[in-house]
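Quick one, T. Sequence first:
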Amino acid sequence: MVIGNLTNLRELHLDYVFINSIFPPLMTNLSSLSSLSLSNCNLFGEFPVEILNLPHPRTLFLGDNNGLHANFSLLPSWSSPLELWNITERILMSDNHFVGELPSSVNTSKLSYLTYLSMSDNQLSGVIPSWLFTLPSLNTLSLHENHFVGELPSSVNTSKLSYLTYLDPSNQLSGAIPYWLFTLTSLNTLSLGENQFTSLSGFAATNTSTSLQVLHLQSNQLQGSIPADSIFSLLTLTGLSLQRNNFSDTVNLSLNPWNNMEQLSLDFNMFEGQFPILPPLMMHFTASNNRFSGYLPSSFYDSVVLQVLDLSNNNLVGEIPLCFENLTNNDFFKVLDLHSNSIVDILPPIFGQCSSLST
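Structure tokens:
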């Protein structure tokens, strides 16, 4: 391969080029390479350990090569090459066939420039090592859809994560969701869904993040009432997923300061009581398969932004309020699902003019 002879080559980007072969071994000879990107190239075979010996990589993207496999537990001390990559900024190895465990310890002072690390959609196992939460420049950490188990660290020095904006460790994690996650001052998106968490631990409202906008907690084992000083104190939330847990409580959104909330999913819990009044910017609200009861409110469906409203499989009664007619002025309104309640099945006539409604 001609590329293997280009020893002064600094950047090599072949994403979506259908190479359809084993990893080209001559690429490991590119001693001057600072950026290597071979995502979606249909590479297969054994991951070449020699790639870890590249002396100057700033960017290493090897994602979406499902046939590329490696057992990280068998790699010869791959923490050592990581420590040598003291100028590396971005590593993407997601959606491959990597197995084994991440190294238990790494000298993170040698990774002071690393801003992006994605190893999602593999088959990595063991616990998530605590050194991942000490990388001082880290902006994005994505580990979802592996086989990590155990608990997240109960405490970390959050001052070392001052740049972290995106965190997704969704795996098979258990125990309590540690409070420090909500004190990260730059965190924008926190995805903790599809785990086995059982509680929120030590949540202190006065120390919560001022920047968190998206929080995913769906498909865990969280139960009982939501403490008033927990997620209700996250004033900047625009998206919240709580579906498929065992929460049980009344939900009065008018008393909670979520004025910016645009998407809220409460499906498949045991929420009860009167159906809540929605915040004014809500676009996507689903609360199916709960225990909400009583009549639908008669004075809050004047939204011009609501797109999806799913209240199916609850205990709602009465007629559809005439205020629903206001939704016909909303060109974005697509889904209205009220089935499996005790609501009188009579739609206001003006709904026949709602051309955007698809369900």
